Amino acid sequence: MVVVVPMHAYVENGPDAENLLGQIERAGRTCYKSEGKIGDGSAEKFIASIIKRGHESVLEHGAITARFIVDRGVTHELVRHRIASFSQESTRYCNYGNDQFGGCITVCAPTFWDRERSDDERIKLEVWLEAMQDANKHYMKLLELGAKPQEARSVLPQSTKAEIVVTMNPREWRHFFKMRCSAAAHPDIRSAALTLLKEMHNFYPVLFDDLYDEFCTASSAEA
Fold it and tell me: What would the pLDDT profile of 94-109 be if each residue is shown by its tens digit?
């Protein structure tokens, strides 16, 4: 058997909005020596203004950390983003035969097939699940034969679940969302990115208002 989980992402450890926005404002106002204008509500107005003017380098004076639970195909796309820090679950050191992992591999369900939509998609999902179960059987057999996890992992599928913690500054998160929330992005990373954009917008509206309107409103209309 294998465990199947959905792909998702969430804010792992972001600073509270007042501290993050205040830090960005203080750094940005250094350019104009306008620190005397700092007051209640001034950070949101200042940041909205610099985003509108395209002066987004100021947004690099902060960091937000998110956790993705996705398949390894998505993590290969994630680590292409710069500038960012990544800490990823290692298939070299994680032994999925141990009780800690339930004695089986965990895989992420693809987002592009829905068994409720049609028989054709249901059949594709069944074939996919058979492949996952087959990979799990051979992975466990290799461990039984004495293979190390770093050796047995060679039979793990791309759908293997991988947790990855990602830290970026707000400017890079904005670039990430522009790339990965687009309709042209791969459906799996797009699904995780849209979920994360909605949460980050809840935490820091002024940083992501325009992207939320562009992508999340559009995705709701698609649904």
Answer: 999 999 999 999 999 9
Beta-carbon neighbour count of residue 1 at 10 Å? 11
Q: How far apart are CA 204 and CA 193, in angstroms?
A: 16
- Alpha helices by DSSP H, the chain: 17-29, 42-52, 72-78, 119-144, 149-152, 170-180, 187-203, 205-211, 217-222
Across 115-134, b (16+ Cβ under 10 Å) vs e yields eeeeeeeeeeeeebeeebee
Beta bridge partners of residue 14, listed in sequence order:
none
Active site residue 171: no
Which positions ≥6 away from 75 have C-beta within 8 Å?
68, 88, 162, 164
Token duo for residue 63: 């960091």
Residue of 29, 153, 180, 190 marked catalytic: 180
The answer to pTM > 0.85 is yes
Cα–Cα distance, 165 to 167 (Å, whole number): 7
